[in-house]
Amino acid sequence: MIITSYFPPEIGAASNRIFHMAEGLKNDYDISIVTPLPNYPTGKIFKDYKGKFRSTTEENGIKINRLWIYASVSKNKFLRLFAMLSYSFSLIWFFMWNNIPDKVIVQSPPLLVSFTCMFFLRSKKRKLILNVSDLWPSAGLELGALKEGFSYKILKKLEAYNYNNADLILGQSNEILSHIKSITTKPELFLYRNFPQIEFPKLRETSSQNGKIKMVYAGLLGIAQGILKLCQELDYRTIEFHIYGSGAEEEAIKTFINSNKNLPIYFHGRVKRDDLHLALLKYDLTIIPLLNRIYGSVPSKIFEYAKLGLPMLYFGGGEGEDVIKTHQLGWIAKEGDYKHLNEVLSGIHLKDLNHGLKSSIQDIAKVQFNFEKQLEKLKQTL
């Protein structure tokens, strides 16, 4: 059983990661998913699920249990807490009335949800596997979403409880695993990168009618990504900027574009993942930004874009920066330094972004970011 707060048809790295893990494990295990009714990132229950208290379906050989949640993306911390509590209550009810298998993978964060699972499912007969994709509450503190105080101390205790009661912890970065080691040495640790399970597309030459680099961002338009500030700070003399996605900053980005029609910024909205992959092939360069460096974070876009053969400009610091450098996937700009970002951009030329570079990036991905090899190692550990 995999318990997660995000699952398709929701978009985003967390949703994709769990989906591919489930698909990869289903040949060796009977897989079931427990997840809320889909609502992310809009904060509203998706149209096909409105009015439902629960939905149980079987899709591609996987049983999917979708539970009630009070959906919200409100900035009001009490409403957001209630949203997390509502899913936790649904989980407790589900645990009471359903047989839980002897191996359970729990996605963390959200911290409160993962604590609910670790507390109510602990048993000597059951193996609890915690899949840690971000370090909460530390990441919340770095993003400015949390402040040190009583509630932060409580969250730190929940975090420590989760780690101490896991039999195995999967971490998506070495920084995450190092952080966990500083808290407990009880569970076994496994580096599980967010490698996507996608086809390697045939690469094609891109062309520019105006001599400018076609740079693209695709993904969530949230506070952490800082796309609005990026729009405001970029030097557009050598680039045009294309944006795909949806999220909290979407309306503000649209307003900025409409107020600055002289700037070559193009908003394409949210598109299906397969369609997005085809669209990305026509761009010269992608940017992967983080407004602030988040300890433990390695954006999954790195591995996805590498398989697409898309050169990257990384602007977020941390371990993600090391991955770009080590595997020669593109360029690095100092985190939070927009002057340096524009200097790096001015030094990139269309001739640099050629078919040879894209083929090289794709070849590296085939060897270094191999989903099947990583999955086989995980199966041996489970």
TrEMBL record:
Cite a single GO MF annotation: hexosyltransferase activity
Per UniProt, which keywords does this protein have?
A: Membrane, Transferase, Transmembrane, Transmembrane helix
Keyword Signal present in the record's keywords: the answer is no
In Pfam terms, one family for this protein is Glyco_trans_1_4
Q: Which InterPro entries match?
A: Glycosyltransferase_grp1
Does the record carry Hydrolase as a key word?
no
TM ranges are 78-98, 104-121
Q: What is this protein called?
A: Glycosyltransferase involved in cell wall biosynthesis
**Where does this protein come from, organism-wise?**
Winogradskyella epiphytica
